[in-house]
């Protein structure tokens, strides 16, 4: 099927992702082919600059002096360029797992032509954060070994990147780096460092008023932040779209980590504190080029409005918006479960309303079995969304399951549905999974284990049903071991399940 000048399959068209479809009719390159070409051009540009001017060399290898101090010397230019080229490609194949909100083609275009004096700090900062994440996501031991050097460079440049009068790009690059670092530390079981960068990201988002983009209300409250985070007007619709998506990527991070790490969410929707969210729901970043927001579009109380009408069918087909809503309901369910009182009518009403809203979102999600197997980015995102929605139900039912998980009850059925989604996904195509999924799968596994324990207490487990009951746990362990090749957090949770 072809929509206009861009060929697209029916599945991507229905999902609102036609512009990103990998279908090709032979008349033009696909999105991945264009990305590969842009990365290749960046590599050639680096080689050209190195042959003419030695100054930019340190920009691509800022830790060369460290290597020399260790007696290893610098890598040959050609090998270094190939290494960084590979890390760029690896990162952009998995960029959705690190909350990347920038438009990739524009970003590559911006970094392909550094000035003669070299990149400014914020560009070097983000590039090294990308190399760091790329090294984390690969199974190549030699490439993974460079993580400590990339991380040292990123941490050394974080403060200088915003020194002086930081421009729009510097602020957004620093925010993007903070998001990447949060995912990186979470994936490496370094929760304290992850929390620090998570809080830094939320601070920047509020200080830049990213939660009030296109707000129809007058400014109120005084969110935390500093003068160095003041953003000027966006230069075009794409830059505005990047800011919208940046905010929601921070919120996704906040909602998931607030549950996983049992820490307070920064997004409290408090009018007095100025944290009520008015920004529009996000779209896939490329859509802002072809379908920008109307000039007069304004909004207010985005999340509050959604929560008041979440029983209605969700017609949003942008994956990032679905992920945002799934994360919101996941966090709301966790909070509500802590205060649930079956003897309080208002508490029961809130429980019932949220339960119905979660079920509605689950019904509205695109089936993962119909996702294009050649699009690991879509598979990864859809799998995360489905798991988040199912775990929202499991979190909400925590007080009900306190006495035990009932076989074929709602929590048991929901957990099996989550495993079914895992089975339907082409796990072999998802080489790297975002770390938050490890926490979600652990919630699912816990429900299954407790359900089996309930059956065991009833003396109804025997040779005829034991294998079938244990099969879902085996599926979860297989997935965790697969992603544990690169992820310490998945290895930690899979080891804990083995010893449980």
UniProtKB/TrEMBL annotation:
<dbReference type="InterPro" id="IPR001138">
    <property type="entry name" value="Zn2Cys6_DnaBD"/>
</dbReference>
<dbReference type="InterPro" id="IPR050815">
    <property type="entry name" value="TF_fung"/>
</dbReference>
<keyword id="KW-0805">Transcription regulation</keyword>
<protein>
    <recommendedName>
        <fullName>Xylanolytic transcriptional activator regulatory domain-containing protein</fullName>
    </recommendedName>
</protein>
<keyword id="KW-0804">Transcription</keyword>
<keyword id="KW-0479">Metal-binding</keyword>
<feature type="domain" description="Xylanolytic transcriptional activator regulatory">
    <location>
        <begin position="90"/>
        <end position="271"/>
    </location>
</feature>
<dbReference type="InterPro" id="IPR036864">
    <property type="entry name" value="Zn2-C6_fun-type_DNA-bd_sf"/>
</dbReference>
<dbReference type="InterPro" id="IPR007219">
    <property type="entry name" value="XnlR_reg_dom"/>
</dbReference>
<keyword id="KW-0539">Nucleus</keyword>
<dbReference type="Pfam" id="PF04082">
    <property type="entry name" value="Fungal_trans"/>
</dbReference>
């Amino acid at each position: 099927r072809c929509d206009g000048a861009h060929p697209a399959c029916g599945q991507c068209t229905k999902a609102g992702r036609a512009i990103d479809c990998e279908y090709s009719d032979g008349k033009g390159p696909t999105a991945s082919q264009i990305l590969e070409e842009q990365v290749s051009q960046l590599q050639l540009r680096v080689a050209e600059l190195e042959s003419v001017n030695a100054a930019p060399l340190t920009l691509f290898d800022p830790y060369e002096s460290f290597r020399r101090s260790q007696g290893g010397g610098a890598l040959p230019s050609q090998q270094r360029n190939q290494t960084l080229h590979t890390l760029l490609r690896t990162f952009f194949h998995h960029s959705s797992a690190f909350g990347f909100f920038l438009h990739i083609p524009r970003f590559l275009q911006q970094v392909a032509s550094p000035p003669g004096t070299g990149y400014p700090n914020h560009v070097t900062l983000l590039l090294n954060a990308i190399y760091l994440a790329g090294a984390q996501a690969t199974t190549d031991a030699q490439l993974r070994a460079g993580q400590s050097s990339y991380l040292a460079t990123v941490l050394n440049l974080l403060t200088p990147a915003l020194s002086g009068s930081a421009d729009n790009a510097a602020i957004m690059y620093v925010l993007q780096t903070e998001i990447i670092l949060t995912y990186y530390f979470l994936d490496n079981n370094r929760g304290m460092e992850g929390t620090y960068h998570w809080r830094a990201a939320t601070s920047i988002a509020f200080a830049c008023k990213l939660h009030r983009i296109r707000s129809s209300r007058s400014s109120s409250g005084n969110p935390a932040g500093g003068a160095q985070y003041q953003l000027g007007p966006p230069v075009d619709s794409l830059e505005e779209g990047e800011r919208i998506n940046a905010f929601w990527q921070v919120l996704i991070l906040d909602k998931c980590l607030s549950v996983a790490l049992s820490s307070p969410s920064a997004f409290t929707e408090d009018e007095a504190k100025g944290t009520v969210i008015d920004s529009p729901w996000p779209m896939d970043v490329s859509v802002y080029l072809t379908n920008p927001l109307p000039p007069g579009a304004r909004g207010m109380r985005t999340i509050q409005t959604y929560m008041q009408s979440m029983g209605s069918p969700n017609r949003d087909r942008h994956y990032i918006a679905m992920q945002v809503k799934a994360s919101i309901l996941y966090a709301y369910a966790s909070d509500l479960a802590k205060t649930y009182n079956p003897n309080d009518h208002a508490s029961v009403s809130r429980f019932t309303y949220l339960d119905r809203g979660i079920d509605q979102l689950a019904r509205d999600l695109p089936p993962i079995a119909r996702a294009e197997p050649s699009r690991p980015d879509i598979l990864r995102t859809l799998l995360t969304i489905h798991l988040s929605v199912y775990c929202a139900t499991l979190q909400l039912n925590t007080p009900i399951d306190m006495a035990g998980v009932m076989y074929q009850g709602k929590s048991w059925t929901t957990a099996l549905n989550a495993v079914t989604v895992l089975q339907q996904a082409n796990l072999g195509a998802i080489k790297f999974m975002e770390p938050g999924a490890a926490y979600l799968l652990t919630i699912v596994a816990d429900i299954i284990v407790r359900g089996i324990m309930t059956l065991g207490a009833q003396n109804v487990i025997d040779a005829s049903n034991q294998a079938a009951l244990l099969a879902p746990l085996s599926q979860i362990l297989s997935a965790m071991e697969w992603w544990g090749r690169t992820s310490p957090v998945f290895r930690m949770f899979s080891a804990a399940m083995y010893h449980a």
